[in-house]
Amino acid sequence: MAAPDGPGPDPVAEHGPAGTGYRITLLGKPGCHLCEEARAVIARVAADLGVGWEERDITASTEDVAEYWDKIPVTLVDGVQHDFWRVSEDRLRAALRR
Predict the structure, then answer these.
(1) Does 38 map to a domain?
(2) What total of structural domains would you count in the chain?
(3) Which H or E element spans position 27?
(4) Residue 17 falls within a domain, yes or no?
(5) CATH code at position 66
(6) What is the spatial distance between Cα 82 and Cα 87, in angstroms, rounded to a whole number?
(7) CA-to-CA distance for 41 and 15, rounded, in angstroms?
(8) Strand, coil or helix: 62
(9) Is residue 15 part of a domain?
């Protein structure tokens, strides 16, 4: 499935303290209920540990759609795939403490 053309929602939403960098990236798409659950876990963990995170809409990129369509939500930590489909709060906390 190709990404839609034309203007749409901002494909990247940034969260967290300024100047911290973004250690967590959530890849998802609008209307994804699993993405909403992942967002809640990531927001909680990031706030507790004081790390920044960003959210990227895969439908804004044909490459992201091809790579991640059947895996969302996907969580990256420091740019490396960490989880997909579900976010384990314990695993995410452990990865961020390394």
Answers:
(1) yes
(2) 1
(3) strand 22-28
(4) no
(5) 3.40.30.10
(6) 9
(7) 13
(8) helix
(9) no
pLDDT for res 98: 77
Q: Which residue range forms the structural domain that includes residue 67? A: 25-88
In this predicted structure, what is the pLDDT of residue 10?
A: 54
- 14 lies in a domain? no
CB-based contacts of 85, cutoff 8 Å, min separation 6 = 34, 71, 72, 73
How does residue 97 score in pLDDT terms, banded at 50, 70 and 90? confident
Structure tokens at 39: 């967002």
Range 79-94 average pLDDT? 95
- Stated as kind and residue range, the H or E segment containing 77 is strand 74-77
Dihedral angle sign, alpha carbons of residues 78, 64, 28, 81: negative
Distance, CA of 2 to CA of 65 (rounded, Å): 7
User: Is 0.85 topped by the overall pTM?
Assistant: no
- Polymer length in residues for the chain: 98
State how far the Cα of 28 lies from the Cα of 44, in Å rounded to an integer: 17
**Cα separation, 16 vs 26, whole angstroms:** 13
